[in-house]
Amino acid sequence: MASNIKSVVTLIAIGSICWLAAGVVAIAAGAQSKIIWTCVVGAVLGAMGIRYSIRRSRRTGI
Protein backbone atom coordinates (compact mmCIF):
# COMPACT_ATOMS: atom_id res chain seq x y z
CA MET A 1 0.00 0.00 0.00
CA ALA A 2 2.94 2.36 0.42
CA SER A 3 3.37 2.50 -3.34
CA ASN A 4 -0.24 3.69 -3.65
CA ILE A 5 0.39 6.84 -1.60
CA LYS A 6 3.69 7.30 -3.39
CA SER A 7 1.95 7.34 -6.76
CA VAL A 8 -0.70 9.77 -5.48
CA VAL A 9 1.91 12.15 -4.10
CA THR A 10 3.93 11.88 -7.33
CA LEU A 11 0.88 12.72 -9.41
CA ILE A 12 -0.01 15.74 -7.28
CA ALA A 13 3.61 16.92 -7.33
CA ILE A 14 3.72 16.71 -11.13
CA GLY A 15 0.54 18.76 -11.30
CA SER A 16 1.97 21.38 -8.95
CA ILE A 17 5.16 21.60 -11.00
CA CYS A 18 3.06 22.08 -14.14
CA TRP A 19 1.19 24.96 -12.46
CA LEU A 20 4.50 26.54 -11.47
CA ALA A 21 5.86 26.18 -15.00
CA ALA A 22 2.69 27.69 -16.42
CA GLY A 23 3.05 30.58 -13.97
CA VAL A 24 6.61 31.24 -15.08
CA VAL A 25 5.55 31.18 -18.73
CA ALA A 26 2.63 33.50 -17.97
CA ILE A 27 4.90 35.96 -16.18
CA ALA A 28 7.41 35.85 -19.04
CA ALA A 29 4.65 36.39 -21.60
CA GLY A 30 3.18 39.31 -19.66
CA ALA A 31 -0.18 37.64 -19.08
CA GLN A 32 -3.03 39.17 -17.14
CA SER A 33 -2.79 39.03 -13.38
CA LYS A 34 -5.77 36.68 -13.03
CA ILE A 35 -3.95 34.07 -15.11
CA ILE A 36 -0.85 34.40 -12.95
CA TRP A 37 -2.93 34.14 -9.77
CA THR A 38 -4.67 31.05 -11.16
CA CYS A 39 -1.27 29.41 -11.56
CA VAL A 40 -0.23 30.43 -8.04
CA VAL A 41 -3.46 29.09 -6.53
CA GLY A 42 -3.10 25.84 -8.47
CA ALA A 43 0.43 25.31 -7.15
CA VAL A 44 -0.61 26.14 -3.57
CA LEU A 45 -3.58 23.79 -3.72
CA GLY A 46 -1.27 21.08 -5.05
CA ALA A 47 1.06 21.57 -2.08
CA MET A 48 -1.91 21.38 0.25
CA GLY A 49 -3.04 18.21 -1.53
CA ILE A 50 0.32 16.57 -0.98
CA ARG A 51 0.21 17.38 2.71
CA TYR A 52 -3.39 16.20 3.01
CA SER A 53 -2.71 12.93 1.19
CA ILE A 54 0.28 12.08 3.37
CA ARG A 55 -1.57 12.92 6.59
CA ARG A 56 -4.62 10.92 5.52
CA SER A 57 -2.56 7.87 4.62
CA ARG A 58 -0.85 7.95 8.01
CA ARG A 59 -4.15 8.33 9.82
CA THR A 60 -6.10 5.64 7.97
CA GLY A 61 -3.25 3.31 7.13
CA ILE A 62 -3.90 3.36 3.38
Automatic annotation (TrEMBL):
UniProt keyword annotations, A-Z:
Membrane, Transmembrane, Transmembrane helix
| Segments crossing the lipid bilayer | 7-29, 35-54
Name of the molecule in the record: DUF2530 domain-containing protein
Q: Which organism is it from?
A: Candidatus Planktophila dulcis
